[in-house]
Structure prediction request, 277 residues.
Amino acid sequence: MNYTIPANPDWKHASFTVNFKKYRKLQFFHQSEKLILKWFKDDANYVREVCSYDLFERFGVWTAPQSSYCKLTIKVTGDAKAGYFGVYQMIEPVDETYLANRSTLFNNNSGNLWKANYGADLKNTSTAPDLMGMENITLTSNYTPAYDYKGKSAKLETAKSQLANFMTNVNSKYGKNLQSYLSGKMDVSLFLKTYAVNVILGMWDDYWSNNNNFYFYFGTDEKFYFIPYDYDNKFGTSFLMTDSGSQNPLEWGKNSENPLVAKVLSILEFKMKYIQY
Prediction:
């Protein structure tokens, strides 16, 4: 692949979010209201994240965002010429439009969407503000909870209770009671497919290993959906593992600290499906 040298080296790389409806309310880009333009900060080969999302799609993990490449040029009024930033990654944001575009798969798009940041172990059921809340980044605030609620503020307390109840049930049930609960509250096959891909990719910065970097969604039927996210450091970068390409896929993460995967795999039927995938 031939790369063009940036036209103006004084322009610094950064990632951007484009809002297509900012000034034209009915304008979309391939059914998306917004688009993330991400530079390949940690990937000189420009392939890790695009390839990861492509593999999710090929394996039927429809919760993964869409992604591809573009060339990015920005023209600022008053500048003599446009600034060419080079090859960038396009990523579909996980937001209300993402939910609407998958409403038939989720069976609805009016449930509760969360972004999970570092510390989201799906174990600690506290609803305190340091764990559950709504991100507030301003010049004077840097508030980012472990569980960042992406819905309307009026629904926050109800959403907190729903999340805490899910964690309580998952972590307190065992055997057939757990299997029955998980079968009713998750798309278990989809979750197992997601984690089969995660482990193949060497995703060390995920929920299971580092309680980090994922979204999740509760539909109006209270069913939990895991949404994979942020795959720029994969394929052997192994920051938290000796070699993420040679780990036992049944003992991948920190089962006691981040127990959801281990709880699912404690059911023999689910474990055999995971091995099959």
Q: What stands out?
A: The longest strand covers residues 83-91.
